[in-house]
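User: If you would, consider this record:
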Amino acid sequence: MIIIKKLVVGLVIMPVIILVIIISLFFVSPIINNISLNNFAKQLNKDSLPRKTNLVDKDAVCGKLNGNGNGMDFFACILIESELSLEELDKHYKVQEFNTARKSGRYNVRLDIIHANGYMLKTEHLEHQDVYFESLKNIDDYSGYYVVIIYDGGYPTYFDLRGN
């Protein structure tokens, strides 16, 4: 009789435990991706700025950022104001090594440095997501403003719905 009660309790509790585990995957995976994004974005810190350059703003996002299908992409950028030319900035950042967003990264991190083109960042890396620079909202002349971008993508989404 005791064995039957334990079996019944086990049969009732087991589906609940399985359901909790499955649901928790949808919370754990985004947290892990947010940690990966934060570590990826930290590579563009204030200490790595070239001379005559000031950090104005920064942003980072992850999810399915461009293309179609499922996948997790990581994007981080900083808006800088600099007296240097685009070529000088490119030369400064090209010698730095950027780590992939995840240790299993198969590809190299893509680095782009572009002229700021407005309040909303327009780049090929962001088809399905928008990045806004509040500090450029009331500025008409974007000369001297540049965006340094690092991008890494193509990872499995696992249970992160942002990658769908």
Notes: The radius of gyration is 22 Å.
